[in-house]
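User: Please predict structures.

Assistant: First:
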Amino acid sequence: MEMGTAGGGETRSDAEIGWTVGGSPLSYHNAVVRCDADPERADRLIDEWLAELRRCTLPGSWHVSPSMTPTDLTERLVGRGFLDGGEEPAMLADLSAPPPGVGEDHELQIERVRDDAGMDASRDVLASGFGEGPREAEWVSSVFRSIGLGDDAAWRHYVGRLDGTAVSTVSVLVKSGVAGIYFVCTVPDVRRRGFGAAITRHAMLEARAIGCSAVVLGASSMGYRVYTRLGFEEIFRYRLFEWSPDAT
């Protein structure tokens, strides 16, 4: 929701549903993230969401979590042409104590992104192997530039350098004393050297230092074991359902 608004997207947030659409060319970021609807209202809300996507000629996604209602929401989405994109674990770590010392022994020089050059470096790391590659990286970096890189922004970004070259990155969103970790990426040719763990742990320590009591993230299959070693526990899983105007 935060990125969608900053990226120029329209948002809806009421008692029944929360979504953002229009800020991104990528389905993952044009998303329904909350739904608390009565069964007799659910189909209408899905149709309203599809109408908004069609109006903008954009793909979109519905991030279905266990707390969403009605309970047959996934069947309703599939019936309207959404494709099942699989599950993603939602994880949480307590920051009342420092995270375990996983990834402490590393060669990275980790620095906070504070200018366009730093954001360029973060973008290039993401483009090398995160999500949809350069297209997603370019949009993400443009949104973060518009939000700003100062201490008053809710987002903070970090880049890890190896011999001066940016090889790893992470972004952190701080809201109401909780930190969310996003866009953890290491360039493919130096993976499996602990850099992902190192930069994630650095982000956790930074969040703890500014007073956050907990940190959350959505884990990829690649990162799941790393995050458990850093003290994260799986809280639930959400399932991603995607829709594209090209499919209709």
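Second:
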Amino acid sequence: MSSIHALRSIAMSALAGAILTTAASANPLSLLAPDRQTPDQRVVQPMFEPQRPATEQAARFKRQIVDYATHEAPGTIVIDTPNTYLYLVLGNGRALRYGIGVGREGFTWAGVQTVTRKTEWPDWTPPPEMLERQPYLPRFMAGGPGNPLGARAMYLGGTVYRIHGTNAPETIGGRVSSGCIRMVNEDVMDLYGRVNVGTKVVVLPIERHADMRAHAAR
């Protein structure tokens, strides 16, 4: 019996040696420790590719000069609610166009107002009607980067509405506000420097489309 066991052990050892020899011949570096293998023989884990940030604006919402046919005088602001654009009329069939966020369903409005006040880094005091709908909101928030009114605000007439910046740039192009007009901070700062108190602001109704639509310059 001991002879049989010995023969089996010898056979198993020979078989294992043959397997290792074959593997080593096929891949001479396969038996090396991982830190001694060449890079192309190590297991490469797929790299995580992060998604593009949600705050990246679509190209059509970038600030740009466009063709714009209107009877409004140069210096007038036109809010194109359905297409989520704000136009600053330049004259001669041209306007400076900005992407904006507008009121969500049930909170859009239309009409003519004027800029009655301008503020840098405005404080925010939600109006009573907003607090009634959203009682969890703060009663007051000092101006600053975390303030939802952003870097600048232009107040419209005696209404609760404003053209203001935002700390949520991913909302540009959406219908998300309680009626205010949102702009990215860079754009609202640019507009703020171009308009004065008394500037006319025309807000188009949500139903109006083609007759006031602008076409980007080629």
